[in-house]
Amino acid sequence: MRYSALKIFTEGLFGNKGWTPAWRTPDPKADYDAVIIGGGGHGLATAYYLAKNHGLTNIAVLEKSYLGGGNVGRNTTIVRANYFMPGNSEFYSHSLRLWEGLEADLNYNVMHSQRGQVVLFHSDGQRDAQIRRANAIVNQGDDAEIMSVDQLRAEFPYLDYDQTRFPIYGGMMQRRAGTARHDAVAWGYARGADQRGVDLIQNCEVTGIDIENGVVKGVQTTRGPIRAKKVGMCAAGRSGQVAALAGLRLPIESHVLQAFVTEGLKPVIDSVISFGMGHFYISQSDKGGLVFGGDIDMYASYAARGNLPMVEHVMEAGMTLMPMIGRAKVLRAWGGIMDMTPDGSPIIDKTPVEGLYVDAGWNYGGFKATPASGWCMAHLMATNEPHEVARRFRLDRFRTGHLMDEEGTGSQHNLH
Fold first, then answer.
1. Would you call 164 helix, strand, or coil by DSSP?
2. Is residue 210 part of a domain?
3. How many domains is the chain partitioned into structurally?
4. Of the candidates 18, 32, 187, 316, which lies 20 to 30 Å from 124 by C-alpha distance?
5. Please, are residues 215 and 230 in contact by the beta-carbon 8 Å criterion?
């Protein structure tokens, strides 16, 4: 079934009784050409592009819970391509271009809204750094502009410009950045993959990876063994645990990142706003809730919930930047499990086990990377060669020292 305005209209006339399920619920087969571990955004996108770009249809996505129940449904929905380092810059540029055509490609409304993102700066040094970053972004082929305080006041009058401690000096705006509906992205890719013959297997936890003479042969699951010629690991914050099933130790620590949403309010925040003197970012959802977050909780954990000191820290940053939000009621908070690498940049690469591939280490960048991550992981699994825009995301950079330290904070997982 194709979705369209006409279909919505005609279904409304006849009681909405003609809608069909968005995807099938098949039982796992005994043998596949490829198995993807993880039914989140990256795993579903990988399966979709394996089918669409490379013609592979005998594929299964294995999810231990329900599709989209992990980090893809636990983020703050921001989409942007304002990275600085070579390797990251061209990758996220590719991802943003895929975002811009994603709804037409999937025939699904992922609610992609290019409302812009502004990163504020609060000192001469931060201004110089953002100008340099803006120049690099423009040279990469994406958009960036430096806004003066007067321009910011005209567009964002509710910010606290005159605070003594962190006065606002200006900001870097990327107009093509914005937000998308995280759940809808997972559902759109799931539907698209299913339409191309991919089996989406929910409630199917991988408990072992079968390897013979250094070659992957399949996986063990709670629903029985499954043979596969190729296996892709797309397990986000659980990547270290999944890789351990194959005897591998990834250079990853798993940390909790909290996010928050308020009650629904009338439209007030048009763009995504990032605070330069604290890791705080905020936007307003289509339902009216203010969606915001900050730093990770700074200790390794697999618990999808955070601690109160970080709640206080995030609220303090928000109140410093825009005191007007102080009267908004926070409805709920949640935590995602972040797979943090030593340099803050991701991994898309082959492993030492033949036929076993890894997509991990996305730090804060996983949601915005979803289309390009799936595109590049699918290319790697289909051709056994890295995609051009993901060539720097190799595992061996941690051995050779060719790191991509986007924030310049050194080789310490929790600082990224």
1. coil
2. yes
3. 2
4. 316
5. no
